Amino acid sequence: MKPLLVIAGEASGDLHGAEILKELRARRPALRIIGVGGGLMTPLLDRKLADVKDLGVVGFVEVLRHLPQLRRLFKLILDVAREEGVGTVLFIDYPGLNLRLAKAFRKAMPELRLHWYVCPQVWAWKAGRIPELGRTLDALYCLFDFEPALFQGLKVEALWVGNPLVEAVTPEVDRETFFRRAGLDPTRRLVALLPGSRRSELDRLLPPLVATVAGWDGPEVQWVLPVAPTLDPASLHLEGTPIRLVEDLGYAARAYADAALVCSGTATLETALLGTPFAIIYKLSPLTYLAARYFVRIPHFGLANVVAGTEVAPELLQGEVNPARLGRTLKDLLDPERAAAMRKDLAGIRARLGQPGAAGRVADHLAAYL
Q: Does the keyword Lipid metabolism apply (predicted)?
């Protein structure tokens, strides 16, 4: 049995990758697994090539600054695949690097099986990638039911496996335990702040969030910020603010919050599944934003709203991410009548994400080719 190479590029990919690798280990205990991952994937890898915390960049400008590092990793991955005699590659999201790798593998090692988990959002932008993915990949595992139809007639086998968040998103502890461990008062209202897991997101979103807290003139609340596994809490420099940091309790922090401000991405879908009223926030470099406005062809940029097909959660982008606007939005989310209506709307999102067991379905399909 030839080794498997797995490439994840960010915190969400590390989470998904770990679940798939656990299922694979149960089916193929002797399988040698090499890869790029984070703390969750690390114990499941026989050989680790790099960590996701070194790859968490977003936007055209940001990627340019990291090109030398990405090029070195690119070459290392190709060299190791040859050295180890890899037979199958599993790419997990992160299309900026992974699509280039897939095309390089298809050219240099055409005998490899190339599988991809989490269909790139070609329905939102870069529709030109559809035939590219169709020609390059052997299998594409889709999280949303509308995605396989995009690849009809192409070589790739596109499968809807359901969304792993349906089973993964659950509070780590009960409410009483969370408030005790976080050092918070369970009788007071709680607001969760999620500025993202990438350094570039933090640099743009954390300052306006901190300023919102400093200038807050609404009802009395307490503030919590769940720290992503890829981040060092000390690097956030929140000393002297009333924001309480919590580690390893990201779902509980949102589940027991009365409202949340959430960076656009997978975290918005997670928060929707937890049923907490929230607003979606995002801020890009000016150049990246101009490019995104040209390429993005869908009415909503928040993943939770894309799945819902309507704006369930308010979206604040670019200049709207300022203390005054964030404060007004947060007050609206804390209004009992508005919160009740939003919780009802959020309940409908879960039904559109399929049944539990996505990682197992991917492992079953993948194991048949190892």
A: yes
